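Quick one:
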Amino acid sequence: MAATCDIGLIGLAVMGQNLVLNMNDHGFNVAVFNRTVSKVDDFVANEAKGTNVVGAHSVEEFVGLLKKPRRIMMMVKAGDTVDQMIDAVAPHLEPGDIVIDGGNSHFPDSNRREKALGEKGILFVGSGVSGGEEGARNGPSIMPGGRPEAWPFVKNIFQSICAKVEDGSPCCDWVGEGGSGHYVKMVHNGIEYGDMQLICEAYQLLKDGLGATAEELHDIFAEWNKGELDSYLIEISQHIFTVKDEDGKPLIDNILDAAGQKGTGKWTCINALDLGMPVTLIGEAVFARCLSGLKDARVEASHVLQGPTKAKATDRKEFIEDVRRALYCSKIISYAQGYMLLREAAKEQGWHLNFGAIALMWRGGCIIRSRFLGNIKEAFDKNPDLSNLLLDDFFSKVLNEYQGGWRRGVIRAIEYGVPTPTFSTALSFFDGFRTARLPANLLQAQRDFFGAHTYERVDQPRGKFFHTNWTGRGGRVSSTTYNV
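Output:
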């Protein structure tokens, strides 16, 4: 069969199928393959019926359908399956051909694959794809990274099928080298964990502190979605509150409060610890999901442990505004921490990341898409070397102006006994970051006292370490200085 296809896609689960249909809609001829070959015939005969999609029944046939340089995109389960598919197609490829992993792979795996395939002359691209089923079909956010030489050959396809912002700019651009594409997607997912938890805390505080009904919550969230909090997650949350169960009651009230997770938030937290970055909000969001999983223990504890009893708030307008400001300010902290992590990872890995372009990539199509991301792009457009979002004029002004309501929102949660781990950690980070002198001087004195770990002095140059014989009984020898 003649090589007539512009790109091939392996993996016909829901994301793969919808990306194929999206590519076909934009005029690209697509070849498809799946390890369970019957899925190929089923897809071509049903969802892809009447399109130019071509099905293949073997790897050899699949590769033979592709124009050179061959572009192969895999939408398969992260982990061993990706390596198995690479091993299956690589013997049929030539130098200059391109392999794209569009799944949720861990970035160290993408670093490894990019290097291994590069030794064979094959160009690897690890690309984050966000937006779920709807995004894949109608326009996702796409975050490609890997061998830069591959970008000119995939740019037209990716920027054609991705989401677009108001001015038509594509929510896809080249991220950087190695596994940077999947790294940016990992941080995106971590921020998504944070956004979702923040919204959940606002929901519970309004429900328990104000006594808001599902209908009232819809109205509140709908109003929020017209302003600074305009986002996909606020939009879908307002809709969720309107859906009724078979008994006529709000469906939300019948859903078990035990959250699932697939690991990308955990990866973000582990990497933050490895890099020494205080990404506290995403960490609390991950732990909040873990705590939700202790359902039976929580039910038992609810009969033993007592919290405060306080009448529902009557200052409705003020209460709602305090919660809104707490949500908005905490969201700013979450993204600031995420960008801190991106900057540190780029430094460690030697990646050249365009932080403004990343905000644009997240501006549409993906789960965390929001008006707010436009402000982040503007911040990095003004100052590409911006060390922290909180130092940008727009964000510092918002935090300075809104912090009173933010603090009252957290205080109200404490008064009602409503757990707000991400609201609270965001405020603690804000207070820590704006504090010129933290109590870590005492911590360093303690470490030196019991372990001779040394300390630096405010009146001496950084990097010069001292040890004190605190009791008069210790020696002059100090512990080796190192950072973890």
